Amino acid sequence: MESKNLSPSTFIGVKGNEIISFGSGQPDLPPPKQVYEILPTYRDFKYGLIQGQLNLRQSLAEQYPQSTVDSFVITNGASEALDLTLRALANKEGKNKILLPRPYYYSYPFMVKFSGMEPVYTNLIEGRIDFDDFQEKVQGCKAVIINSPSNPTGRVESIKTLKQIEKITDDLGVYILSDEVYKDLIYERENYLIKGSHVVTINSFSKTFAMCGFRVGYLWSLDQELVNKIIEIKTHTSMNTNILGQEMAFEATKVPRDFIDNQIKIWKQRRDMIYEGLVNLGLDLWKPEGAFYVFPEIKDPRNFVWNMFKQHKVITYLGEWFGADNRVRFSYALDTEKIEEGLKRVEKYLKD
To answer: Taking the model in full, what pTM does it have?
Structure first.
């Protein structure tokens, strides 16, 4: 395999005793014990409700303002929630463009195109939205995707900017798709929930509760017409979401906040270690305020990613997959010993 063929699938699922993976976007921390204590006695393996199991939706409705169980659809991860929402919006008359921040999560442009719509981009400044550029480009769009905290940058949008986005999109009748899968992993402040009649909030149990493989996500919206359209599409595509995963997710909704707070301390320690380590190696990068990614500038990133893997057994992700050709994404979802060893290998590569 040559470096020119690099793609995310080159590294997804790759493991080995000597491999240090800064690639994976999944937490290495264990899920709360409550989610798997149900396994020995669980026996319900029939089809479930297309919209999602009632107990889980009832529990989520207590977390979101003005909500009922009908405000939610439980999906196969946040990815299906976003995919279904985009397809439902594509069926609405009007504009055909979706505004994306750049850098973006690498699946966003593909999902927009798969839905039959066109992605357009607002370039970030220091990893955050430039509202002047956003305000100009949103005029011609049906919806915008907001991702805060961000994958790949780890940056958190200011509340001031989010409120400006709320207002202008409301005035224009533009939908906000708020991807908040890292909302519980913010180091600087509490998450700000974007509100409005044309807002779709997308979340999952993968990052907060380390349940990636169970593929349980959800969307929340007060636009009941849109929610009903999404249910119609799901009825004829994936049908119900994993029943066992939903029951485990329901147990996760009852976990005390202390569980999340303790995990944030670990993530923050790792953030500080990798950020300071890369800065000490002379790399230019933004300091993350949430999620678990750093996104440094790297000279000749394609060769860096390929040679780090082949010569030093270190996995990193190309910035060009995220719309940033001069950067490389590091995930710090691994223990401090591996971060330390990985930084040593990066240092050796840079010196060589």
So the answer is: 0.94
